[in-house]
Amino acid sequence: MSILFSKLPLKKQVLQTRLVVSPMCQYSAVEGHATNWHLVHLGQFAIGKASTIIQEATAVLPEGRISYGDLGLWKDEHIPALKEIVDFVHEQGALIGIQLAHAGRKASTEKPWISRSQLAPTHENGWQTVGPSAMPFHEKDHPPIAIATEDIKNIVQAFQNAAKRAVSVGYDIIEIHGAHGYLIHQFLSPLTNLRTDAYGGSFENRSRLLVEIIEAVKTVLEEQSLWLRISATDWAEGGWDIEEAVKLAKLVESMGVEVIDVSSGGNVHHQNIHVKENYQVPFAERIKAETNLVTGTVGLIKNAQQAETILKEQKADLIFIGRAYLQNPHLTTQFARDLGVDIEWLPQYERGKETL
Ligand SMILES: Cc1cc2nc3c(=O)[nH]c(=O)nc-3n(C[C@H](O)[C@H](O)[C@H](O)COP(=O)(O)O)c2cc1C
């Protein structure tokens, strides 16, 4: 009896398996609009029987995009192309979530296959970034402008507006991107947040932006489940760590977040990570043990038995997978075969089950 292929009921939805396609930026949007690329990219996972797919980081404001090729939902005109994707995924019986994001000081980059560097505000595809404090991610980067206290409400409002649009598109899940050194994580971490107002200093103050975003987003949700992705540690001395992450998890649980998706790192250039199989699992395990949140783990999970073992040992409830889904968009059916589980394929592909 496979746990990976067992259902997980949430308050208003049922996840059909414990596998989730992790959000992955495609840098293929035009002015924030989804293109055919996104329809095929996300659609292929649904054809391959993925039960839950989280769409890439989608910016709530234009300056909150990582690159000029990021998806956005800062205006109603973005809705129709996203609706085509969501409708297609639903027609195949899968659930789809949107990851709402603001990149903060890590915004204004080139598409990674062109260059890994940041684009200056004077570059035709670049812009002035913002952040909790006027400190760049990399010493070569153009410093962000520290967001004025009175302007923080505009960021919160942008998350709420985007969430409202996401509800009208028909997404099943709204995931707030609080990880990987983007704006929310920049506020959470004492290494990147040097503010002296109500949004900096204590844990309570550093969490305030996220708390306000959750409050604002919650008020516009209908049937959607609210998820949060966090980095559990900065992997750097004096930084955000698992102790504060556990505290945050308890706080967001009390606010109605249903699933926590536990990643790590990305906030400071001098982070010291030793990446290996399951390296982020202990963070999820800790949060799962100390809260009642549905807890996801991610990172270098490459085969079905590995995923099954994590679930069996109760270290997580959900397995998020990124790159292995790029290698094989039909990974879900592959994992089922590997575990000897017979899952139903879509009728158009049913004959593909035959042994040749
Ligand atoms: C091409 C690519 C784009 C990514 N974009 C995002 C993103 O938009 N949001 C996010 O939270 N993580 C993003 N990630 C991180 C993945 O969701 C995942 O956490 C990471 O790749 C580790 O999982 P894996 O070892 O299964 O790939 C991205 C990863 C890749 C490879």
From TrEMBL:
Domain NADH:flavin oxidoreductase/NADH oxidase N-terminal: 4-337
Annotated InterPro entries: Aldolase_TIM (IPR013785), OxRdtase_FMN_N (IPR001155), YqjM-like (IPR044152)
Keywords attached to this entry: Flavoprotein, FMN, NADP, Oxidoreductase
One Pfam family, short name: Oxidored_FMN
PANTHER family documented for this protein: NADPH DEHYDROGENASE C23G7.10C-RELATED
Protein name: NADH:flavin oxidoreductase/NADH oxidase
UniProt xrefs under Gene3D superfamilies: Aldolase class I
Superkingdom: Bacteria
Cofactor list: FMN
